[in-house]
Amino acid sequence: MKQSLSISIFIQSILMFHNHFIITVRNFLRHPISSIINVTGLVLGLTCSIFIFLWVLDELSFDRYHKDNDRVYKVMGNEFFSDGTISTYQFASGILAEALKSEFPEVEQTCRLNWSNNKVFKVGQKSNYEYGVYADKSIFEVLNLPLVDGNPNNVLPDNHSVAISKKMAIRFFNSYNVVGSTFRVDNNIDLTVTAVFDDIPDHATVDFNFVVPFEIYLKESNTDIYRWENEGWIITYLKLKAKEMRPEVDKKIRSLAKRHNKNLHEEHFLFPMTEWRLYDQFENGKQAGGRISYVISFSLVAILTLIIACINFMNLSTARSASRSKEVGIRKVAGSSRNTLIRQFMTESILLSLFSLLVALLLVHLLLPVFNDFTGKKLTINYLNPVIPGALLLITLFTGFLAGSYPAIFLSSFRPATVLKGNTKSDYKGSTLRKSLVVFQFGLSMIIIICALVVNDQTAYMRNKNLGFDKNDIISVWSNVQTSKNYEAFRNELLQQPDIIAVGMGAANPMEINGSTIFKWEGKPSDDDSYFNSASCDYDYLSALGFTLIEGRNFSRNFPSDSTNYIITEGAARKIGFANPIGRHMQWGNHDGQIIGVIKDFHNLGIRESLRPTVFTLGNRDADFGRWATVFVRYKSGRTITTLEHISDVYKKYTTDFPIQFGFLDKDFEWQFHAEIMAATLTKCFTVMAVIISCLGLFGLALFNTEKRMKEISIRKVLGASVSRLVVLLCSDFVKLVFYAIIISCPIAYYLTEKFLGEYAYHIQINIWMFVLPSLVMFLSSLIIISYQSIKASLRNPVDAMRSE
Questions:
Q1: CA-to-CA distance for 505 and 485, rounded, in angstroms?
Q2: According to DSSP H, which parts of 655-709 are helical?
Q3: Torsions phi, psi of 366, nearest 5?
Q4: How many angstroms separate the CA atoms of 99 and 96, rounded?
């Protein structure tokens, strides 16, 4: 009996759904224009939301591949200075890892890591630059790197061993069973492959193709890292025995360094692996966001765009209500309850949403390659991943329910006795709600437009800001032991090319000078522990890169004493407090010299951060420039190809064992803004979608209003009202709505943009035009739409509207 009842209910449900489906199709075909506009709004909203969903899902998936990601941490440090500032960094003493393991029973394993510069690996005639790390062999335990070949109990047995990734093994040997094979590295050391580890997934913050023993770094750098005050650019990772132990370890680790050296003013803390990608920005010792701000912002844009599309659907559905009022009356007379009608209209809404989803997915598939090229992603729609179809279905159902809720309740409320007489005026309630929805819709669009303008202007400001040096027409050539050894001959031959203006060498890209050094000077307070950024360079580095010398002179080959002298920035001069710094003494360790020049402040840590006081020293030996040494070549504008050809020819003459690696300084600078540029462009696209959808919503309300007032318009026209007067009459209400939207949205947009700009040390000033221009755009767009609908209604024959009276 129960089974028969269940079958009967199931059949009735199928028949009811079939009936609702037929009605939906008929209504779609009966009102093609309004139906297409309705679906277009949903398609645009869903397309925008799907793109953002895929991007957000990709960002949230970083570092989730690791089975123990909730137990793996990077040790970060906060250093406290006498002026009250706090600097957060990721480097620690080389002795910290062992101390953590021996003193903290909660710690399962630790490892030390230092990034290697790209090294040339060679086997036979095959050679290639590879990126990797110096690390303790325990890295394979901490980061859970599975081996595909080799002994997991003895991954790096000695200082002549190397572990390589699977893809690197295939690149060189066409196989990953290559343990025992030998590489010639940088043409000065032979390393034997002792392990092959599985490729690190794309969604990993820490990625590398080879691991060499940490002891090799110690030998190459000749640095004493076994002192608490000596960081040595070492990163420390650890894995806890259980994630619940983190608060206790975090508490204990804060006093660890100070317990071993009471003179240190620093505290360590644990930075979880799951936050490495999205929460990597710190300000004054506190976490201050990172890429998570884009994740949150784009998620909000997706939600708001969907809401705008749903409002559009509501207004268009209620605009068509007059044509469906008699249908509702007949169904109620025939016995349909209000709940039945609500289910019917909700089903229609969900079916239209599902149809819109199919169209949106088609658009996403077509545009996904373009989206991937722009964002640098490899996004796909993997329908086998239950999260993706589940989320798409959830988004569609949410859209359908939200968009169809008000029209379903509104249409099902019609009284049959009233609507069957042709009088629907008393049933057109809720005009205040519909107008409020339009105000809300246009207000959201206004906020998005203003935010888009501010993001775009801020990005343009940063890209065009005076950096304190000239980044244009500079080719950077990565140096190596052979380039350094033959540098003078290499430089002189480069300068024989008429297109080359200057050549200089330095230990760092000017935008990446992050080496910190504590200097002494005359009159420095004993409790002043502040530090300056520092870098070594040759005689021509500053002039080749266009630094502005405002006092004193540059390093010169005519002054042998310059090997111990300094050139400082304006900020460093202000910090030192010398009214006339030229000739004053500074000291770094045993390095005692004079200040010979002052250059204009420049951005040396990226455009987002404040200018740091910087000191340059003269490097006249290979060791002074280190493994990140770079040759900078300034050339005549427009002569890029011929200059590159000449550089390549000269490079091959003096450097036979290292393929040339080069870049463009302006492109390196642009890369800093990859996230901002992407955000600005995507925001523009979403803004256009939001405006289009909002205009469609306004069109729906204008259509609804003119249909409701058609008899009034006809009577006024018969009584002599002109078309222009009727247009003004019909437009006045909508102009007020747009005006209200502008008034409400501008303060909100101002607050949001002020908060956004506050994240940048240097930013644009918000001006009135950022609000006036979007207001004019929205006002004119809405006026055109309303005027079109009003003129169309005013030109109709009044006899057609009054025929039923």
A1: 13
A2: 665-671, 674-708
A3: -70, -35
A4: 5
Identify the residue whose tokens are 């983190």: 246
Q: What is the C-alpha to C-alpha distance for residues 662 and 648, in angstroms, rounded to an integer?
A: 10
Neighbour count for residue 788 (Cβ, 10 Å): 13
Place of tokens 């069957």: 420
CA 461 to chain centre: 18
pLDDT in tens, 69-90: 889 999 988 877 777 777 788 8
The share of the chain scoring above pLDDT 70, in percent, equals 81
Q: Taking a C-beta distance cutoff of 8 angstroms, is the pair 69, 63 a contact?
A: yes
R_g of the chain, CA atoms, integer Å: 34
Contact (Cβ atoms closer than 8 angstroms) between residue 684 and residue 513: no
The Cα–Cα gap between 764 and 130 comes to 40
Q: Are strands 286-287 and 474-478 parallel, antiparallel or unpaired?
A: unpaired
Helices (H), 262-320: 292-319
pLDDT at 170: 94
CA distance to 156, 316, 662, 696, per residue, from 692 (Å): 60, 14, 45, 6
- Cβ-Cβ contacts under 8 Å for 532 (sequence gap 6 or more): 516, 517, 518, 519, 568, 572, 575, 612, 613, 614, 615
Helical H runs in 336-386? 338-375
Rounded CA gap, 763 and 29, in Å?
A: 53
Joined tokens for residue 231: 């960081």
DSSP 615-672: EEEE--SHHHHGGG-EEEEEE-TT-HHHHHHHHHHHHHHH-SSS---EEEHHHHHHHT
**pLDDT, tens digit, for every residue of 300-354?**
888 888 888 877 777 766 656 555 666 666 666 665 666 666 777 777 778 888 8
Under a CB-based contact definition with an 8 Å cutoff, are residues 313 and 40 in contact?
Answer: no
Question: How many Å apart are CA 435 and CA 674, to the nearest integer?
Answer: 40
Place of tokens 């909203």: 45
* Cα 17 → chain centroid: 44
Q: Which two tokens stand for residue 477?
A: 């050539």
pLDDT interval class at 197 (50, 70, 90): very high
Burial 177-202 (b: 16+ CB within 10 A, else e): ebbebebbbbeeeebebbbbbebbee
Report yes or no on whether pTM surpasses 0.85.
Answer: no
Q: Pairing mode, if any, of strands 235-240 and 182-185?
A: unpaired
**Whether 475 contacts 605, CB under 8 Å:** no
Angle at 761 between CA 534 and CA 265, to 5 degrees: 55
- pLDDT (0 to 100) of residue 423: 54
How far does CA 638 lie from the centroid of its chain?
Answer: 32
543-563, pLDDT tens digit by residue?
999 999 999 999 998 988 888
Among 694, 682, 15, 638, which Cα is nearest to 304's?
Answer: 694
Closest by CA to 272, choosing from 107, 76, 110, 73, is 73
Residues written for the chain: 805
Q: Mean per-residue pLDDT for 672-686?
A: 76
Residue 427 corresponds to which amino acid? D
The DSSP symbol for 766 reads P
Q: How far apart are CA 640 and CA 467, in angstroms?
A: 22
Is pLDDT above 50 for 805?
Answer: no
Please give the DSSP secondary-structure letter assigned to residue 90: S
Q: What SS3 state is found at 157?
A: coil
* String of DSSP letters for 526-541: TT----EEEEEE-TTH
Q: How far is CA 245 from CA 105, 107, 271, 620, in A?
A: 10, 9, 14, 50
Contacts of residue 402, Cβ cutoff 8 Å, sequence gap at least 6: 306, 307, 310
